[in-house]
Amino acid sequence: MRQVVYACLAVMLYALGNVITEQRLKPFTQFGIMAYCYVPMVFMTIGALAFLKAQGKAISFPTGDALYAAGLISIVFFVADTFFFSAYTNNADAFTVSSIVLMFPAAASLMKYFWTGSVPNRY
User: Fold this and answer.
1) What is the pLDDT of residues 44-82, one digit of tens each?
2) What gap in Å lies between CA 82 and CA 79, rounded to an integer?
3) Residue 103 in 3-state DSSP?
4) What's the pTM?
5) In degrees, to the nearest 5, what angle opens at C-alpha 20 toward C-alphas 14 and 25?
6) pLDDT at 102 > cutoff 70
7) Is 30 in contact with 85 (CB distance < 8 Å)?
8) For residues 7 and 56, what is the distance between their CA atoms, to the nearest angstrom?
9) Which of 9, 80, 94, 111 is deepest in the core (most CB within 10 A)?
């Protein structure tokens, strides 16, 4: 049940981000918007890691092949964010972008099929 709550919260926050981007940040360039989104994330991540360290919890970072996979994922997200914010800077609205983003499950299922040869599960 926890994973459903997390996914629902993520959807709500992404929707809020879409509205904020459309209403307030549309006139700026995509890389300017990304810089103002990524820089605070760095500081919030450092704060979260410091909080976990203060609580004495173990912090696990990727190593070996997982480090390469994490680097590849970061490149994919950077390019995806570039296209996402470019849609807004080219006069898209929140409804259009959100509607297109709804194709994500179908695209992910198709990619999974071509990558693994297995059909998507019911989730």
Assistant:
1) 999 999 999 999 999 999 999 999 999 999 999 999 999
2) 5
3) coil
4) 0.76
5) 120
6) yes
7) yes
8) 27
9) 94
Which among 19, 24, 12, 41 has a CA at the least distance from the CA of 97? 19
Please state the length of the chain.
123
CA distances from 82 to 7, 23, 61 (A): 23, 18, 26
Please, are residues 90 and 99 in contact by the beta-carbon 8 Å criterion?
no
- Alpha-carbon span 53 to 25, nearest angstrom: 35
Cα distances from 116 to residues 26, 66, 106, 108, in angstroms, run 38, 18, 15, 12
SS3 8: helix
**Angle between helix 65-89 and 30-54 (nearest 10):** 140
DSSP character string of 27-57? TS-HHHHHHHHHHHHHHHHHHHHHHHHHTT-
| Cα–Cα distance measured from residue 28 to residue 37, given in angstroms and rounded to the nearest whole number | 13
Mean pLDDT of the 22-45 span: 92
Q: Which residue has the tokens 């990558």?
A: 115
